[in-house]
Amino acid sequence: MHIEQIRIENFRLLQDCCLDMREKTTLLVGKNNTGKTSFAVLLERFLEKPDHFTYTDFPIPIREKVLGIDDETNIEELAIRLVLRIAYDETDNLAILSEFMLDLDPTRRHTNILFECCIDKKKLLRVLPDDPKERKKFIENNLSGKFLDIKVYAFDDFGHAEETPYYLAHRDQLEEKDRSGVRALLNFQVIHARRNVASSEDAGRGAKPLSAISTRFFRKRDIEADDDDDDDDDDETTGSGGESIEKLRSMLASIDDQLGEQYAQVFGGFLKSSRDFLELGDLKVVSNIQSQSLIETSSQVIYGETDNFLPEHYSGLGYLNILYLLLQIELCRDDFARRNAPLNLLLIEEPEAHTHPQMQYVFADKIHGLTSKIPNLQALLTTHSSHIVSKSNFEDIRYLSRLSPSQPVTIKNFHTDLSVRYQELGADGAALFQFLKQYLTINSAELFFASKAIFIEGTTERILLPLFIEMHDRENVDETAESGLSSQNISVLEVGANARAFAPFLEFIGVRTLVITDIDTTRAVVSEKTGKTSYPACPVAESSHTSNETLKHFLSAPDPKEEKDFSDWHKRLVEGTASSGEGQIELAYQLAEDGYHARSFEDAFLSINLDKVKARKDTLASLKNRDTLDQFSGDDFYSLTTQILGKKSDFAGSVLYLALVEGESWRVPKYIMDGLKWIHKN
């Protein structure tokens, strides 16, 4: 038995969303302000705090209708809803779930629970002021609690083909249920992102968070030990923990006896005088050490050797956060085991808070093991961490997307929905999808949270791109006064010639992307011996083809067998007029500049910086045949680059060094600068 789907309607940014749940762990990812926190809040509101809804929980697009409510208003269209679709099979114990099963068909494997927060129209209209301004203010300040009607229903049909949802089209088929039945069926626990951890800066300013939660942990175990004694039952929730608590109680009782004897000697004279003065009976001071208070006030979490330890608040926030998380998970695990509900749902908000990347990696790797120990548990994690995403299974990822501030949020099943898009690519779609899954590294996972992306060809561009971005911002100071390109949320990926593998992925997550690549021109050469055609690299002016698969894909190259069509396309490619017609993705490759058309970044850079390269030839790294530079004349930069350039990354590193340290003002190839201007404005 498990929650298969969660549907949300009319709650903040989540106006109409459906989340496909995994049986174990589901990961909710997305940029800021895409509703991850709202998702967590709504679950908690309906499952734990149903009286906490307010006017601000209604999404902005329907607030006008809320403010204009009258006798004719259909309040069902304005209701905040949460629908749980629950799947089960013949092996499950359906004793509790049967309360929500309305159809006795033995072949049925789903039922649904609807939570609904609806405005009590009659009650609200009785007290609304007539003046529009007062009316608006009243609703904004008072639409909560007594003016909202929160109910729970069961219904059977979820995946019907009607355009109107079943729970709206067939209100008479809904069966209202008591909330106690939901609590018996589903145990929901949440670990919020705002965890009470504090660094050494907060030492001595209130309770220590780890010690405080340790007290909570002990208190739960103490209560469970009491319950175990009362029930005389070997409950697995206590086990050896219950025996340890009994030993602690016994030790404290012994200490109480010893302290009592000492108190009698210390307070004896005072107590005798008090008895005589007040005419009281036997007056004593006794010891009564409470185990919970002792843990809370006289214990602390330390690290290091006992004789040479450091206190809790000396730990880094990352360690505190992880320890806090682990204790919280343990508390939740105890609660799940104690209540033994058929469905358990644990939501963890942003487990990466305060932790460095490596620790995020470790936590992501271990969380599945932690949650797998809890029976019948489904875990929901919301995160902004590319490290956690990169350690997760593709099948677990759900992407919250919001293409613009005026549009509602949608929740996409990353694996299922994206695989369909790759299937549409034809024969090589499966291979490209497999490549994408294997390439889900830390860098590529950043795309889930980026506003924009830049794909680059190789190491040289990766080394020099930060310099080029800085130069772009400097040269376009008027346009970048508010937000330079360097301050935008941009992910840079070195993908070589594999940019086309990301095309459906980029479309799927809606990230505008600049692809900086090489034109990589070739020419067709037919072998006299074999008659076979090869395509060796050549200068642009002599070319008839390109080996760049990214350009062919995004610029819709025709089949090379269609010689005339392909020749026309290649001509447009060289001229820069082979438009992709794709507004979300822009291609930047070498075009003619200063009378020369380069084939790669290196000869493009050399052609516009020749004089400076000559002047710096003894300083620039990885140059060979340096004398060739002095003898060079003409415009065959393609051959010159081949003759003088050694290891490209070393050359790029020295170009960067001379710019940053010695202030050399290199020129940036125009195709790159034009591309940076595009990604900055779009």
Automatic annotation (TrEMBL):
<keyword id="KW-0255">Endonuclease</keyword>
<keyword id="KW-0378">Hydrolase</keyword>
<protein>
    <submittedName>
        <fullName>AAA family ATPase</fullName>
    </submittedName>
</protein>
<dbReference type="Pfam" id="PF20469">
    <property type="entry name" value="OLD-like_TOPRIM"/>
</dbReference>
<dbReference type="InterPro" id="IPR051396">
    <property type="entry name" value="Bact_Antivir_Def_Nuclease"/>
</dbReference>
<dbReference type="InterPro" id="IPR027417">
    <property type="entry name" value="P-loop_NTPase"/>
</dbReference>
<dbReference type="InterPro" id="IPR041685">
    <property type="entry name" value="AAA_GajA/Old/RecF-like"/>
</dbReference>
<dbReference type="InterPro" id="IPR034139">
    <property type="entry name" value="TOPRIM_OLD"/>
</dbReference>
<dbReference type="GO" id="GO:0004519">
    <property type="term" value="F:endonuclease activity"/>
</dbReference>
<feature type="region of interest" description="Disordered">
    <location>
        <begin position="224"/>
        <end position="243"/>
    </location>
</feature>
<keyword id="KW-0540">Nuclease</keyword>
<feature type="compositionally biased region" description="Acidic residues">
    <location>
        <begin position="224"/>
        <end position="237"/>
    </location>
</feature>
<dbReference type="Pfam" id="PF13175">
    <property type="entry name" value="AAA_15"/>
</dbReference>
<feature type="domain" description="AAA+ ATPase">
    <location>
        <begin position="22"/>
        <end position="404"/>
    </location>
</feature>
<dbReference type="InterPro" id="IPR003593">
    <property type="entry name" value="AAA+_ATPase"/>
</dbReference>
